[in-house]
Amino acid sequence: QVQLVESGGGLVQAGGSLRLSCAASGFRFSDYAMAWFRQAPGKEREFVAAICWRGDCYDYVDSAKGRFTISRDNAKNLVFLQMNSLKYEDTAAYYCAADLSYTGWPPSEYDYWGQGTQVTVSS
Predict the structure, then answer these.
(1) Are 105 and 118 in contact (CB under 8 A)?
(2) Bridge partners, 80 (sequence order)
(3) Which of 36, 57, 103, 108 has the fewest beta carbons under 10 Å from its own?
(4) pLDDT 10s digits, 74-101
């Protein structure tokens, strides 16, 4: 079955960096777009970044542009989110997502989700 397992979250000071990883299994990873979302307490889930199956096209929420970088390793079934210059408002649970239904680029829907990894940025 499809599994997405995030790791790499933690506590970091404002201005610091974290690299999140998502290990995918149960599907042909290299064929599908992947994304990161986040959800802060009391707020709706928010799109952060997406990467197409080839790894050479990207989409970012405005607040992540210039600070976050999404990448993937199709040989290892991994997708990453490098987060630099972290701000307090980046504090959230971060989720990996997969578009296995080819909803277009950038994807309009995601079929599968991981359990999330917590990122806490202290001010």
Answers:
(1) no
(2) 21, 71
(3) 108
(4) 999 999 999 999 999 999 999 999 999 8
